[in-house]
Prior knowledge:
The complex is a heterotetramer, with 2 copies of chain A and 2 copies of chain C.
Chain A: E1 9-11, E2 14-16, E3 20-22, E4 44-46, E5 63-66, E6 69-72, H1 81-88, E7 98-102, H2 107-118, E8 125-129, H3 139-144, H4 146-159, E9 164-167, H5 175-184, E10 189-192, E11 196-198, E12 201-202, E13 207-208, E14 215-218, H6 223-236, E15 241-244, H7 250-258, E16 263-266, H8 269-272, H9 276-291
Parallel strand pairs in A: 3-4, 3-16, 4-7, 7-8, 8-9, 9-10, 10-15, 15-16
Antiparallel strand pairs in A: 1-2, 5-6, 6-14, 11-14, 12-13
Helix pairs in contact in A: 2-4, 4-5, 5-6, 7-9
Chain C: E1 9-20, E2 25-31, E3 43-47, E4 61-64, E5 67-69, E6 77-83, H1 87-93, E7 100-107, E8 120-125, H2 133-140, E9 145-151, H3 160-164, E10 169-174, E11 181-182, H4 189-195, E12 200-204, H5 207-219, E13 224-227, E14 243-245, E15 251-253, E16 260-262
Parallel strand pairs in C: 8-9, 8-12, 9-10, 10-11, 12-13
Antiparallel strand pairs in C: 1-2, 1-7, 2-6, 3-4, 3-7, 5-6, 13-16, 14-15
The structure holds flavin-adenine dinucleotide (2 copies), flavin mononucleotide (2 copies) and FE2/S2 (inorganic) cluster (FES) (2 copies).
Amino acid sequence: MSSPPDLAVDLGGIALRNPVLTASGTFGYGTELAPWIDLRRIGGIVSKSLTLRPRHGNLPRRIAETPAGMLNAIGLENVGVDAFLEEKLPALPDGVPVIASLFGTEIGEYRAVAERLSECDRVAGLEINASCPHVKAGGIEFGQDPGHLARLVREVRRATRLPLLVKLSPNVTDIARMAQVCEGEGADAIALINTLQALDVDVETRRPVLRNVLGGLSGPAIRPVALRMVFQAARAVSIPVCGIGGIETGEDAVKFLLCGATAVQVGTANYLDPAAALRVVEGIAEYCRRAGVASVRELVGGIELPAG
Amino acid sequence: MSSPPDLAVDLGGIALRNPVLTASGTFGYGTELAPWIDLRRIGGIVSKSLTLRPRHGNLPRRIAETPAGMLNAIGLENVGVDAFLEEKLPALPDGVPVIASLFGTEIGEYRAVAERLSECDRVAGLEINASCPHVKAGGIEFGQDPGHLARLVREVRRATRLPLLVKLSPNVTDIARMAQVCEGEGADAIALINTLQALDVDVETRRPVLRNVLGGLSGPAIRPVALRMVFQAARAVSIPVCGIGGIETGEDAVKFLLCGATAVQVGTANYLDPAAALRVVEGIAEYCRRAGVASVRELVGGIELPAG
Amino acid sequence: MRAEPGEPLRARARVLENRREGPSHLRLRLAVPGFGGFSPGQFAMLSPGPLTPSRDPLLPRPMAIYRCEGEGAPDPVVEILYKVHGRGTAALAAAREGEVLGLVGPLGRGFPLPAEGEGAILVGGGTGIASLLELARRAAARGPVEVLLGARAESELMGLGDFEALDLALHVATEDGSRGRRGRVTALLPDALARAPGAAVYACGPTPMMRVAAERAAAAGRPVRASLENPMACGFGVCLGCAAPLRGGGFALVCRDGPVFDAAAVDWDRMA
Amino acid sequence: MRAEPGEPLRARARVLENRREGPSHLRLRLAVPGFGGFSPGQFAMLSPGPLTPSRDPLLPRPMAIYRCEGEGAPDPVVEILYKVHGRGTAALAAAREGEVLGLVGPLGRGFPLPAEGEGAILVGGGTGIASLLELARRAAARGPVEVLLGARAESELMGLGDFEALDLALHVATEDGSRGRRGRVTALLPDALARAPGAAVYACGPTPMMRVAAERAAAAGRPVRASLENPMACGFGVCLGCAAPLRGGGFALVCRDGPVFDAAAVDWDRMA
Ligand SMILES: Cc1cc2nc3c(=O)[nH]c(=O)nc-3n(C[C@H](O)[C@H](O)[C@H](O)COP(=O)(O)OP(=O)(O)OC[C@H]3O[C@@H](n4cnc5c(N)ncnc54)[C@H](O)[C@@H]3O)c2cc1C
Ligand SMILES: Cc1cc2nc3c(=O)[nH]c(=O)nc-3n(C[C@H](O)[C@H](O)[C@H](O)COP(=O)(O)OP(=O)(O)OC[C@H]3O[C@@H](n4cnc5c(N)ncnc54)[C@H](O)[C@@H]3O)c2cc1C
Ligand SMILES: Cc1cc2nc3c(=O)[nH]c(=O)nc-3n(C[C@H](O)[C@H](O)[C@H](O)COP(=O)(O)O)c2cc1C
Ligand SMILES: Cc1cc2nc3c(=O)[nH]c(=O)nc-3n(C[C@H](O)[C@H](O)[C@H](O)COP(=O)(O)O)c2cc1C
Ligand code: FES
Ligand code: FES
C-alpha cells in the first residue's frame, strides 16, 4: 500500500475527486471559507438552498446550542437564484463541483428554480431540499408525504437534465420508502439527513428559545440517527446515497460509507472549524492507508452484519 | 412565597406527590437503587417492560455511548410478569406509585400481561410500551402504524380498569396523530418519547457496534426532539402527557412541563447518578420557589409563544 | 505562517495565562503564532476545552479581541477579557496554562476610527467593555476621548485599570453605587454629549443598553456606532444565525457586516 | 455519612493525585469521605470531567478499586490504576488535584478469597492487573500466592512495583520481551498450575486472555474465577447493558452478579 488511496467517487453522475461535500446552509456560497480551506481539495460544495426570489429569513433568535448539537431556524434566507448565478457562482474557483440546493414554497417554484439553474453549465447537479422543517408553507409536506414527494421529484426531474439529488427529511416513519419514491421518479441520488425537527425552551422567559418556535437539530447528537437512516435507505434503492449528519472526522465519514453512502456532506462541523471538510478528507485517506484500502469505493456498503 | 411549592399532579388518574417518575428500563424494578435514593421522595416508578414469560434479551454488545447520548439494544430482557408480581413488587416500600410497563410480541400477549397486572392492587397504572425499536416482532409496527396502535390500545383498554398510559415511538411522521389515536381508544395519558432508532459502526471491525445492529438512542442528545414531540402531542389531545427524553435537571423537567407535560420520566440520567430523579424533584421545587410558582400545575402548558 | 494585518487565521492558540480578575471575569492571554493584528471591535471565535473534536460545548464562542501585543512579531500575544456566563465560558475558565484552544479570527469589521482631530465618546456596559479598550487607545491618538463604563458593581468593571492607564476622561456608573455614579451607564451619556459636541459616539454592551444609548444620542442629533453581541455559530457568515434585523427591512449579519453598525440602521424592536 | 464496609456510596471524590506512571497509564488517588472499604475485585463507576451535568463523555466508567488507605477512617483514600483508552479515560487523565469526580461504589461482588491455607494463582493482563493487587495481598495472608502478570511491554505493566513489594512469587510476560518471558501471560499458567496443584486460580484481563486461561486451567481440571470487563452504563443492575451470556443459556449481569464469575459458567463463544 504505498500509492495513495483512490478517493474518487461518482455520485449519480457527478464525478467527485473525493467523497466529501459541504452541506447546504453550512458553507454559504463557498467563497466565505476561502481564507481557511482550499476548495479544490474537497469533493465539492452544496450551496445554501436557493429560492426564486431572495428571502430574508426569520427574526432572531435563529440558533441555539443543545447537548452535542444545535438548533436552527434560519428560515431559508438566501440571495435568490439570480444573484447566485450572477454573483456567487462566478466567484468560485474552477474545478470545484458545485451542487445547487433548491427550495420552493410550492412545486412551481421548485421547477422554476431548477430551470434557471439548469441553464448554467457551472452547476454540476441539483439537490432538492424537500425537507426544511421550519418553513411553514412548503418543505414539511413535500418531505413527509410520499405522494407529495413523488410529485415534487417528478416535476423537477422534467425541468432538468442535470444530475438530481433529493435530500430527505428524517422526520418520517419509513425513510426507505421515501428513498424508493425518489428513485422511482428518476432521482439520480438521495441525500440524507436534513435536521430533526426539535424545540428548546428558555425556562426564565418561558418562551421557545427560537423565535420560530420549532427548529432543526443538527450536529454530532444526530449522527447515530443519520447512520441508521442511511443504512436503511441504501439497502432500499440502487441509486447512490449521500450521507449527512454530525460528521466531524474521517472516521465518522467512513461509518457512513460502510453503511452504504457513496459520499458524505459535512454540515455543522464547518462552524466549529472552517477547515473541517478538509480534515474529513484527510481522515478518510488516513483510514484507507491504515486499513489497506486501495479505493474508497471498496468501503461503500461494506458493513459486516452478524450472522443470524 | 414562603410555603413550599405544591408539586402534586394527577397523571390520568394516578395521584403523584411530584411529577417525576423513573423511565422504564432505566430503574430496574425499583429496588436496585434503594442504597442511594429514597423512593418515597420521587413521584413514582415505571417498571422495566414486562412480558408474559421471562425474556433473556440480546447477545452483547448491548450498549454504546454516542455524543451526549447512548445506544441500547437490550432486547427487553425482563423477569416476566409473574416474577414481577411475586418477587419484585412486594419488595418496594408502600406509598411509592408503581406503573407497570408492558410489552408483547403480539396483541394477545399485551392483553394477557395487562390482565395479570390488573389483578394486583399494588399496581397504580399500566404503561403500554408500543415503541421498542429493537425487537423485530412486535413493537415497531404497533408504535408506527396508527391502525395497529389503535387496535393495541383498544384491546388493552378492554383488559384493564387501571389508569392506562401509552408510550409512543418517536420514529413516526406525525406524533400528534398517534397521540390522538390513543386518546380516541380510551388511553388515560400519553408518555413520550421512547428512544430514536439509531445505529453506530465500529470502523476497525466494520461491524455495527451493537450485536442487534439497530438500537435506541437516549440521553440529552434527544431532548430537543422529545420537547418538540411533547409540545405537538400535548396540543393535539386533552388527556395528560408524560414527557421523557434526556432529562437531567429540574430545569430540563420544567421545559417539558411548559411544553404541556403533566409529569416527566427520568431515564438515562439514572445511570449517571442513581439519585438523578431526586435531584430533578429538588430542581423543580427550587425553580418554583425562585419563579414564585405556587403549584407546579401552573407550569403545565405554560409556554408563551411569540405573537404572529 | 504569518497573516497580513487583519487577515483571519485558524490557529491553535496556547494559553499563557488565564487569570481571574473579578468575581466573574477572567483575563486570557494566548500565544497565537502568525496573528497579524486586528481593528478595534473585531472578534475571534474561541473553542474551549481540550478534547477534539470538541463537544461540550459544541460551538465556539465569540469574544472581542481585547488587545494584542507584538502584532507582526513571530509570536504575538492576544488578550481576551471575558465573563463566565454559561457552559462555554465556564469551560474557557477551566483552561490552564499550556493548553491549546481553537481560535478563528480576527473576524468582522471593527469600529471606524474618528477622523483626525475628532473627539470620541465610548459607552461600554458589561462584557461590551472588552470591545472598547483598543478603540479608546487609537481614538485617543486622534482627539479627545471620553470613556463611560458601567457594570453592576465596581468589581465587575472589566479592564478598568487598563482604561485608567490611558490618557483620557473616564466616567463610571455602577448599579450598586460601589464606584462612580449609581445607576446605568447610559445616564452618563447626555452630559458627555453636551461636553463634547463634535465627538463620534461608540457603544458596546447589552442590547437594551445600546438601544437606550442610541436613542439618547439620536435625540441630540448624534449617530452611534454600536457593536452587537448576537449569538453566533460560525462567526464568518455561513450559518446566518447571527442576523440582526434592519430598519429598512431585511437583515445584516453581525459577524460579517458587523459586529459594528450604525445604531440608526438596526431595527431594535425586532432584535431577539 | 459513613458507609458500612462494602456498602455503596454515591460520593464526590476529590482528586488528591493523578499521576502518569507509564506511557499510557496513571494512578489516581481520591479522597472519598465515608468510604467503608471494599472486597478485592469490586469496582466503582467514575464520572470524569468537572462540569455537571456531565456530557462528554456522558456515561461514567467502571474502574476496579485498586486499593484503599484508611478504610473506616473519616477520610479514606481510594486508589485507581487506569489506562488511557478512549474519550472517558482521556478526560479522567485531565483531572487535576482538587477537582471533584463523581464516584458510585464499591459495586459488584469481588473474588471469593482462597480458604485458609489454600494457595492462589493470579493471572492479570492489561488493565485487568488493577483488579488483582488487593486480592494478592489478602490471599497472601492465607497461603502461598503466585502472580502472573502480562502486558505488551514492561512500561505497560501497571502497578508492578506494588506487587513486587508484596511477599509472593511474581512471574511476568511481555509481548515484546522487554521484561520476563516473551509472549502472553497465559503461557506462564501451565507451569504455575503444575507448581501449585492445590491453588485457586483467578484471572482478570482482556476477554481472549481470560478465555485461554480458563481453558488451560480447565484442561488441568482446575476452575478459574474470572473478572469480566464488559461495557457498562450504570454499574448497579438497572440498564442490563453489561450482560454476559451463560453456558446454560440466559445471561448474568457483570455489574451485579459479577464482575467475578466461575469461568466455566461463561459462554465465551457468545461474548461480544
Ligand atoms: C462579537 C462579540 C464579541 C463578544 N465579546 C465578548 C468579550 O470580549 N467578553 C465577553 O465576556 N463576552 C463577549 N461576548 C459575549 C460572549 O460571546 C457570550 O457571553 C458567550 O458566548 C456566552 O457563552 P456561554 O456558553 O458562557 O453562555 P451560554 O448561555 O451557555 O451560551 C449559550 C449560547 O448562547 C450564546 N450566547 C449567550 N449569550 C451570548 C451573548 N451575549 N453574545 C453572544 N452569544 C451569546 C452562546 O454563544 C451559546 O451559543 C461577545 C459576543 C459577540 C457576539
Ligand atoms: C468491572 C470493571 C473494572 C475495570 N477496571 C479497570 C481498571 O481498574 N483500570 C482500567 O484502566 N480499566 C478498567 N476497566 C476498563 C475501563 O472501564 C475501560 O477501559 C474504560 O471504560 C474505557 O473508556 P474510554 O472512554 O477510555 O474508552 P472508549 O473506547 O471511548 O469507551 C467507549 C465505551 O466503551 C466502554 N468500554 C470500552 N472498553 C471497555 C472495557 N474494556 N471495559 C468496560 N467498558 C469499556 C466504555 O465504558 C464506554 O461506554 C474496567 C472495566 C470493568 C467493567
Ligand atoms: C444553520 C443551518 C442551516 C441550514 N440550512 C440548510 C438549507 O438551506 N438547506 C438544506 O437542505 N439544509 C440545510 N441545513 C441542513 C444541513 O445541510 C444538514 O443536512 C444538517 O445540518 C445535518 O448535518 P450536520 O449534522 O452535519 O449539520 C442547515 C443546517 C444548519 C445547521
Ligand atoms: C438501556 C435502556 C433500556 C430501556 N428499556 C425500556 C423498556 O424496557 N421499556 C420502555 O418502554 N422503554 C425503555 N427504555 C426507554 C426509556 O424508558 C426512555 O423512554 C428513553 O431512554 C428516553 O429517555 P432518556 O433520554 O431520559 O433515557 C430504555 C432505555 C434505555 C436507555
Ligand atoms: S455567526 Fe454564522 S453567519 Fe454570523
Ligand atoms: S452496567 Fe447496567 S446493568 Fe450492569
